[in-house]
Amino acid sequence: MKYLLLIGLALIVLWFFRKLNRRRSGTGRASAGRRPERMVQCARCGIHLPESESIRDGAVHYCCHEHRLDRHDP
C-alpha cells in the first residue's frame, strides 16, 4: 500500500513540474508572437483605438463611420 502512495505522490509531483514548465515556456512564445499595435486618435471625438480598428480617411483616423461623415462638425 505504501508503494502505491509513493508512486501516486511521484506522479503528482511530476505533473506539477511539467505544468509549471509549460507555463513558463508558453508565456515566452505567446508574447513573442504578438507585437504591440499603434494607437491612433479619432479626429472627431478624440478617443484612442488600435489602428487596425480605425476608419482611415487620408492621414486622419476615425473611430466609426458616423464620425468620418461628421468630420466637419465641431
Give a quick precis of the structure.
This protein is α+β, with helices and mostly antiparallel strands and 74 residues long. It is 50% helix and 16% strand.
Q: Could you please describe the fold and organization of this structure?
A:
- With 74 residues, this protein is of the alpha+beta class.
- The chain contains 2 helices and 4 strands; from the N terminus they run αββββα.
- A hairpin with a 6-residue loop joins β1 (39-41) and β2 (48-50).
- The protein is rod-shaped.
- The N and C termini lie far apart (80 Å).
- The mean pLDDT is 86.
**Poorly predicted runs of 5 or more residues:** none
Radius of gyration: 26 Å
Number of helices: 2
* Overall residue-averaged pLDDT value: 86
Per DSSP, what share of the residues sits in E-state strands of 2 or more residues?
15-25%
DSSP, total strands: 4
Q: Note the run of SSEs as H and E.
A: HEEEEH
The rounded distance between the terminal residues' Cα atoms is 80 Å
Helix- and strand-based class? Answer: alpha+beta
Please give the largest β-sheet: 2 strands, antiparallel
Write a concise keyword list for the protein shown above:
74 residues; alpha+beta; 2 domains; two-stranded antiparallel ribbon
